[in-house]
Every structure is written in structure tokens, then in C-alpha cells.
Amino acid sequence: MNRIILISFLLLIAGAGKSQTLVGYHSDDIKKIMRETQNEFRLNDNTKNEYYNYLKFENRFGTKTFLFFLSENDTCTYTKMMCDYSNLKVTLEMLNEKYQLVNENKWIEEKNGDKFNITLKRENWYFTLVTRRSK
User: Fold this and answer.
1) Any idea of the CA torsion for 81, 18, 39, 125, to the nearest 10 degrees?
2) Any idea what the Cα angle at residue 17 is, between residues 55 and 83, rounded to 5°?
3) Closest CA to 24 of 106, 132, 119
4) I need a labelling partner for 106 at 20 to 30 A (CA). Which of 70, 82, 120, 132 fits?
5) Degrees, nearest 5: CA angle 130-131-135
6) What is the pTM of this model?
7) Residue 9 three-state SS
8) 113: phi > 0 → left, psi -120 to 50 → alpha, else beta; which?
């Protein structure tokens, strides 16, 4: 039964593009899911940070960076995707289609009884999407 749920989840996120929420997943599972469903991204483990435990994925064009911030036991606590503004229109369309709009820059995702806040922040040269579990 668990295998059916996992396969269904993988198919769902593959069809949803970059919209999967992996908050709560272990780093090993994140690497596997990203490798199997998000061929646009490659793991970049060249950069180390002594203050944060995270996984960093980048696309080959350098227009998207996907960070998974991890707890001490390597479970994802929140994600941050940084994108070039050339991706803004399609990202907003995807967010508005798949999630409940709260305000101009915030959406709610409900998944398996959990709620997640997705917040868009516009920076000078790029925008970010931060996904956290709702409190």
C-alpha cells in the first residue's frame, strides 16, 4: 500500500512541474524524488555552509536554485526556490491554478491534511518562493 501511495505521489509531482512540497521529507528521499522527477535540476554539493544544513539544486541555465533546509536529523523544515524573473509569469499561473490564493504574494497548499504557506518575495534581480508548514 505504501508503494502505491509513493508511486501516486511521484506521478502527481511529476505532472505538477516544480510545484511539489517536500517539507517533512528526509534528505535521501528528496534527492531521490528530485533525481526521478525533476530532470531540470542537479544537486550542487560544492558549496558548504557551517550554519545551515541544506540541499542545493540548480538548473543548468542558472536561472533557478532550489534549497531544502534541513533539521539536525536531515528532515526538510522549509524550502526556498530562487528564480530569474523570466520565470515569474508561468510561476504565478501555476500557483494560482494549483493553490488557494490568500493575498497577492501568498498561497496555501493542503496536502494529506497538512497546510503549507507558499510566499513569493520579489527581490531586485530574482524572486523567491518560500514554502513552510502552516502553524
Assistant:
1) -40
2) 55
3) 132
4) 70
5) 125
6) 0.81
7) helix
8) left
What is the rounded average pLDDT of the residues 117-132?
96
- Contact by Cβ (8 Å): 67, 80: yes
Of the candidates 26, 125, 49, the one whose C-alpha atom is nearest the C-alpha of residue 34 is 26
How many other CB atoms are there within 10 angstroms of residue 24's CB atom?
Answer: 15
Q: What is the pLDDT of residue 58?
A: 95
Amino acid identity of 119?
T
Q: Residue 66's closest CA among 53, 82, 77, 51?
A: 82
Which residue, chain included where needed, has cell 491554478?
Answer: 97
Output the pLDDT for position 12.
37
